[in-house]
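We modelled the chain as a single entity of 38 amino acids. Its sequence is:
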Amino acid sequence: MDKASVNQNDETKKTEEMQPYLSFQRAENGIILIFKHL
């Protein structure tokens, strides 16, 4: 039981750590699309 919840917390933490990178990547893709349209 405890081990499972620890694993769950670890997965959540990893996702939270990746969040800024993912949003940055999305913004970068948006910028690239804008430049392609210019």
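As a brief sanity check on the tokenised model: The chain has one helix and no strands. The two ends are 55 Å apart (CA to CA).
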